[in-house]
Write a structure and sequence with these properties.
alpha/beta; 109 residues; globular
Length: 109
Amino acid sequence: MYEVKEITPEELQQKLENGEKLALIDVREEEEVQEGMIKEADHIPMGQIPMVLDQLEKDKEYIFICRSGRRSENVCLYLQDQGYDKVVNMVGGMLEWKGETVPKSELHK
């Protein structure tokens, strides 16, 4: 069994406020991200992760986000199985996120 690295929403918000360039991936479903996601995040629904493995670099750190932290933890476990060892789960998910959010439709405009 793997140990999944974790980051709290507060720690993540601090890193973003410090200007750190992070690779954030929101794995929630389309309708969930319309309610708002962290503006620095990319959206790849959990079910599509296996199809985009070739786009993820094995030596890059990725922080995965979902609603409560369960799905993103499962994605981290799956990726560790595939040889990705720099994956991090945001514990508590968007339920615990206090920072700014933007509906997906407003992102990357």
